Amino acid sequence: MNNEKYPPEGYRIGTAENRAYTGSLSGLERAMETGAICEAPAVMCDSEDYSLRVELGGAVGIIRREDVGVPGDGREIKNIAVITRVGRAVAFKVTRIDASRTPPVAYLSRRAAQDECMREYIGALRPGDIIPAKVTHLERFGAFVDIGCGIVSLLPVDSISVSRISHPRERLSVSSRIHVVVRSIDGIGRVNVTHRELCGTWSENAALFSPGQTVAGIVRSVESYGIFVELTPNLTGLAEPHDDVTVGGSAAVYIKSMIPERMKVKLAIVGAYRGELLRDSSPPRCFIDVDSVGHIDRWRYSPDCCDRVIETVFD
After folding, report:
1. Over the stretch 124-136, which tens digit does the pLDDT of each residue have?
2. Model pTM greater than 0.85?
3. Which residues lie across from 94 on neighbouring strands?
4. CA separation for the pair 80, 101 (Å, rounded)
5. Which of 23, 106, 171, 290 has its CA 20 to 30 A from that of 216?
């Protein structure tokens, strides 16, 4: 789903349009008149009233505490939610300009930008929509992602990829720009998202390899019966037990066979390298052209020839 008007925070800050609005007093006045949503960096939090100082050209930007964002519990915004905005881009609407002061003071509202985003964009989302997102922070249970104007959604760790990981940082980084799929929307408008459906089916990932190749992988699990080695975020193979392997370490593996009917990749470890991690800082490869495909109704990971069905149905 196209989201040019209400992108995650940080997406519009370097655009010519945003610079025209935030670079001068006259630009801020135009933004106020037109109701435009702008972005600028928050550079300070006041210790007394927890207002945010925003860097603007031609005026001092102030976001009062009550305008920093939409409270998650419907009451007042917490101090930590204000403090953690410092050093980041914030979206806002210009609500008032006091030109009598020197320098002029522009009063801004991030909450007003989020209210409009909720009403005009997020409120229109439906399960299966593919939307842009930006990773804001990581916890063991999942990644928090900005899906528009600083409104945050949880991407659970088991929804990042089919291959299991112990922590989202093994796949994503703070500030990573990714796409996610709307999984569901609860009764109070919170959006739940997933990402693994964009990382390709078993067949799409298996097509990148062939038996007889020796390739690099990441050791994801060591069991008594074998070692699971990740070849891609959505493709893992099983190798026979091997000494001196480390979970999270890299391994050179020989591909013995690939069995679509059972979704199996049989491997042999050629060499394991303790502590030498194969982590790419870029987000996982997306197998869907998100510029032309904005929605999916169903995603089936397992091949048609496989009796075991792994799929996601969006409803």
Report:
1. 999 999 999 999 9
2. yes
3. 108
4. 30
5. 290
